[in-house]
Each structure stands twice: as structure tokens, then as C-alpha cells.
Amino acid sequence: MISLNVNGNNYNVDVDPATPLLWVLRDVLGLTGTKYGCGIEVCGACTVMIDGQREPSCVFDVSSAIGKKVVTIEGLSADRSHPVQKAWIKHQVPQCGYCQSGMIMACAAAMKAGHFGNEILSEMNHICICGTYSRIKDAVGEL
Amino acid sequence: MTTYTSVPPTAEINATLATHKLNRRGFLKFSANGLALAFALPLIGRTDEANAALSSQDLANSYIHVSPNGTITLAFGGAEMGQGSMSGLAQIMAEELMVDWTQISVMQALANTVVSYTTGGSSAVSRRYTTLRTAGAAARELLVAAAMQETGDSNRDNFKADNAKIIYLPDTQIWWEYGELASAAAGMTLPNDLRLTNPANFRLIGKPLPRVDIPAKVDGSAKFGIDIFLPGMVFAAIKHCPTIGGTLTSTPVKPAGALAVVACTASNTRGNVIAGSKNAVAVVASNSWLAFKLAKRLSVNWTLPATTADVDSTQLLAYAQAKLVSSAALVAEPLPPTTFTPQSFAPVLEADVANTMGVPTIDATYTAPYLAHATMEVLNCTVNIMYAGDTPVSCEIWAPTQSATTVATNAALLTLLPATAITVHTTFLGGGLGRKIEQDYIWQAIQVAMAVRKPVKLTWMREEDFSHDQYRPMALTRVRAKLAGGKIQAWSYRTLSQSITAQRGRLTAGSVDSQAVEGAVHLPYTLGKYLVEWVPLDAGIPVGYWRSVGASINSFAVESMMDELATAAGIDPFTFRYNHLGNGDPRAMAVLQAADLLSSSWRKQLPAGHAWGVAIAQAFGTWVCEVVEISQPSASSLRVHRVDCVVDCGTVINPGSVEAQMQGGILHALNATLWGEATFKAGVATKLNFNNSRVMRLGEMPAVRVQIMPSTNAPSGIGEPGVPPLAPALANAYARLGGIRIRKLPFFPNATMGGL
Ligand code: FES
Ligand code: FES
Fold first, then answer.
1. For range B546-572, the mean pLDDT
2. What is the interface pTM, i.e. ipTM, of the complex?
């Protein structure tokens, strides 16, 4: 049994300790907001916050999350009230939306670290195949 | 704001839709806790003629529902893959229904084998404009008719629909909420005059309204196919034969830790079994990662086809180059006189054009590679089949699909269940790009569910997604043109590619695949003596519809050549195009002029080491002109500083969505132009993930400006037309920058991409 704290809730999961956190979130806890894109730490779709830092969860062993606080897109706010979420709605950022959880979590982590503008953008250098980059820049510009 | 709801329609509505035909005017009106008005959106996207045969126009696939408590729901059978169609459709209908954008909710209709439609060909909104306006107006007029009955006043002019109310004008104290009239309205007769709104008075159409699907996409609640999570479900990974066309020799033994190993039969893209061909195994486990891991490690005996060694990018290119010169061509344009076939006309026309051509001013061959889709959400499908003993009794499918109807048809083929026992939920699509029209992943998931008899989600690893795509076809295009006095006197255009249509068994032998030449025919330019030919390529690479299909390939050749000719003539690229647009489409002229104006100030003061390029193209009825600014910091890279984009897509439904689709089309085309290429060695795809199939990251995105031309023409597509002009605009800028003309895509074929 592995004990996890995700979005303030405690869970005990019975999985191989080498299982990436991404798949425990998605297939065991049913927290499907965090996405699989590449599985090799290139695209950023799987980004979550671990103890406040952005992490690609596709290469993060679940056992390494023991004793840490994991925040996923579902835990960012209860009502889309996080400033990043508000800016994303205001600027109508998502297209297909698939990469957006990762983008938003990376952005929120950068804000939490006290960063602004281009600093934030450089920390969310993910892949979006839909091309929402232009609007992400607009949205981040006002954070 | 308007919200997206994932609550499925009632069984009552669904059953009625599936079994009742529309009336002569295209509606099915019935009472189902209020008023339900069903109608059929045109069933096919252009890219999917096959569905025309599968489906019938006289069954409904979408409906409006007004309940007695006033909730108004619009349900559509289509795919929302990021293009904003779900909102666009709702916006059109809400306009005529005379409701505010905040008063409705939108949902995805279910599909069985007779309902729902295919989303492709940039048609999701544009082709359904009139149907939706009429449906919204019909529902409104039924509500008005109910109010007339209540008052006993049959003068329509005494009633006004506004803000989800019917107001009685002689005494405005008398009014009804739509909900109050809903049940009575279901019993009314539809009047002949539906009083469509004068476009000058549109309240919602043409406004940048917030999209209904966006809130769910910022909090993780939007359900993509890959997010379906059912109690007791198991997880499957697919492992294909690594070579194209190979088959399974024997089903491997179940490895430790796996729940099952299932051999999967290949289907052609429409779900017909390819005789004897098991081309993949699915490994089933308790989570996707474990299934992935076990599938990767699984040792499998494959029977490789004899031709495997020939499936090699270098060889394929050499073979295509030889064929381009030696093979007989089919004439696509001008249309052959009735005494000729496309093939018999070719030598006659060739001789005629050659006569005027003499020695061409430019004789150039342009090459576009095979190209993977790589939608951000990998292919996946969830299936739950219920059994009574050994007999299946129902089948429920959740899939990110551009063609729910075909999914339902395939489920019926495999399970032998009647249509009424099959339900298909179209989830949000994490990108479609044409890949999710295909059925391979659906077909596999149904087979796995039948084998394990549990709810199962089958997911393709990214590596399978790249290596078993149905790629954009490689194309080689030879263009010869003659200039005299700055004007084109002769134009000979010959393109060679595999036919997507033929691979699906739907191309009549000896005829031209229209998608192979789109972007090369109906050009707005005056070209003198000209011909456009196509040579079919017989190579065994699976090919499919890639955002904008033939247009992205042919526009590269046409617009690169136009620029080469402009340079040869010593004429500015805009002016050269103006000079050849004399008798062409006035919309093309207007778009080009607008782009000229939009970009003129920065083009005049380019920093040293920067260059600009322009191209214009039409796809799906929409004209787009793009002007790019580039510089080259190193031999292996290119910096794209900006893209100015002017688009004429007829009547604009939602300018915000048009802008987003142009931004998205430009990014997608930048990826393809700079780095995109699927390569094969000994039958095996060699690029398996984003690390060796580079795409643009956020920090590299150029500044994009989109200008939309005002228009009262019928709406045309926006999902794909942003793509085609980008590659030639970039090549044209590159030629101006350093004098090197790039005629073979991508610019940087061996680019790789590091981690985050
Ligand atoms: S899925 Fe983790 S970085 Fe792509
Ligand atoms: S919104 Fe579709 S991949 Fe980013």
C-alpha cells in the first residue's frame, strides 16, 4: 500500500511502486484531468504540482510522491476561481483542451513561485498541437 | 453563460429519434416532457462519402428540446475537437429561437447506427447553417402557434418572440415563458412561413460569444475519450506488427501480470475485415501503464510481408520520382471533352500545352512527405458489452470519434447486435485532425471487450500512434511554366500521390481523385494554356485525411511556383499575383489586397537579416492569405517572427473561433513545414514520439494577427483553410532571405526535440 495526498485528500493505493504517478491518478483514483501525451517528459500534458513545484507526472514514480502534497487540475480550485482559470476563460484559450490541464498547472506553479510574464511562459514551454499559444501569451500577460 | 452538459438525452427522445422519420419539411416534432423538435443535419462531411450510403437523410440526428420548466437544450450529433463547432451550431440556432446565449444548454446527442454525422471537410458548422437556422425558427414558430391558440388571435404579427418569451403585442402584459407553451407547442402544426431573421438584425451570429466547452476545459472536468472511467473497468494497450502490412503468426502467451492477451483482426478503415489479417495484439491489465509496459515487452511472432524491404523512405521517393516522369497521367483540369477519358486526353493536352510552353521559364518539382497526425489525445476507445450468458445483449461505446455513425455500424458488425442495442457516446476529442474519422482503434476495442467481457478502455501508446497512422500522402509535383512580358503563357502541373479514396476502395479506375488535386484546380489565376494532371502512386503506405487534405500539398507547389515566377519576372510577389487575378475570384483579390495593406508597414522596415513571404490559397470555400516574417539564426533553424493572416470565410458565426482556427492552422502548418515527416525503414516507421518528431513549443510561436473580411456570403469552412498558405509563404520568405529555394518539405527533416 502506498499512501498519497492528492488535492488535500489521503488515499491508499495498491500498485507497483514504479508506476508513474500519472497512471495512478488516472486509472486508480479516477482523476482524469491530468493527461497522457507522450510518456517521455517532452509534451507537458501530464504536469501536476508536487509540493508546489511543476512535475511531469508521466515519469514520476508514485513511490516518490509519498509524504508529498500532490495538486492536480481538479484541486486547483473548487469553482474555476483560480486566477489562471479565470484568465483562460476570459481569453478563451482552450481549443481541443487536451493540453490545457498541463499548461494551467505549470502556469499556476510559476505564479506560486512569484514569477511574472515571460518568466511564467518560459516555465510552461509545453506542446499544444491546436496552437493555443497566442492566446496563452495573452492570458499570461495579464496575470 | 451557456453551458455544456454531458447528461444524455432521455431514452424516450433517443428511441423516437432512432425510429421515426422526418416529415417532408425535414422535421420530427413530438412531445417529450415539453416540445421536442428533431431534424437532420447533413450527414456527411466532404471527406466521407461512404457514410452517405450507410445513413439515411430522413432520420433525425439533432434536436431542440424545450421543457415545461423552461430549460432549453440543443443536442447535436457531431464532434467537438477544438474547432468550436458545438458553440457555433448553438449560436446559429439560438439566434433564430430568439433566446439569449445564457438561456440554453448544449449537449452531445447519442448515436446509433442511423443517427449522428461525420465531422470532416471543415463542414461542421458551415454546411449546417441553413438547417440550423430553419430548425431554430421552426421551434420558435411552434411556440408562437401555441400562444395564438391560447389567445384565439391568429394574426402572427401580434406576437413577438424575444428572450425566451412570446409576447402578445396588443397587450404586452400578456406573455408566456417558452416553458409554459412547450407542451402545447408539441401539438401545433408548423406554419409555412418560418420568418427567418434578417441577417442585418442578428444578435448572436457574428459575435465573439464565449464557447460552451471552455469552462470544462480549464478545470479538468471535460471528458475526452481517454478519460472514460467505468466501475470495474480494465485497461488495454495495443501492440501492432511493427511493419506495415505484417500479421500475427500466433497469439502470444499471456505474460505474468496481464489479465488477458487478445489477438485483434485488422479492418479496413470502414470496418470490413481484411481476410485473415490479425495485425495486432492487445494486452489487458489493471491499469494503462501496466498494459503499456507488458505490451512493450511482449515478444510476438509476426509474419512479415514479402515487400517489407521496399517500404523505405529513400526507395519510395526514388520510385515516385521515376513514376512522376514515366507514368501516364490523368487530366484533372481542364475537363476532358466527352469524347475523351482523363487518361486519353492527357497526351493530347500535353502536346498542346507543350507547344505554347516551348522551353519552360521554370521547371520545378516540389515534394511533400508522408506526415503523421499526432493528435494530442492518442487514439482510444472504451467499450462495455453486457451479456446474458454467452449472448451479447447491449453494447455501449465511448469514443473520441469524428464519425459516431460508423462506430455504431462497426459495433453491429462485430457483435451482431441490432442497431437499437448499440449506443455510441461521442466524447470530446483531444484533437481530430482527420485521424479520428478512421475506425481501427474502435474496431480493436470492441474485439477486446468481447474477449474479456468487462468494460475495457483501449489506449494506443504514443509510439503506436506515430507508427500506425494513416498518413498524409507523400506527393511529388512537377510544375513547368512559361513567362513572357511578365505574364504566364503556359502552365503544366503534374502531381503524383497515393489516393486516399482508392485505398478505401471508392475510386473508379481511370478517374482522378479530386482530393489529390484540390488546391491545384479552380485556381483564380490566368495561366494561359494550362493543364493539371494527377498520377496515382501505387505504394502501400496507409494514407488518410490530414487537416486540409490535398490543399496543403498542392498550395505549396502552386504558390511556391507563383513566387519563383515573380522573381524570374522581377516583379513584386503581390503585384505579380494581382496581374494574374484579372478574371479570377474577386474574393481572392480582396483578401490579397487586405493582406498587402495589413503587412505593408512592417514589410517596408524589415530589420537586416529578416525577410517576408506571401501566399494565398482557397480551401473548403474559404480564402486565406498569409504573410510571414522570418530570420535565420543558424543553419539548422528558422525564427518565424510573425504571421499576418487575412481570411474570407463568408458569413462569420463566431469571430473568436475563426481567429482561433487560423492561429491553430498556422501552428499546425508551421510544424509540418519546418519539421514534419513520417519516415520508414524496412517497413517500419522510424519516428515514434515527439522527441524525434519536433513540433513548435509555446516560446517559439510567432505573433499572429488575424483579419476577417466582412461578408454576407454563405459561411464556409474554418477548421482547415488556415493550413495551406503557410508552407509556401515560408518557402517564399526563405528564398528571399538567402536565395535558397526550398522545394522539398520539411525544411529541417532531422530535427529532434529535448525534454521539458
Ligand atoms: S505525458 Fe508527460 S510530458 Fe508528455
Ligand atoms: S488545446 Fe488542443 S492540444 Fe492544446
1. 96
2. 0.98
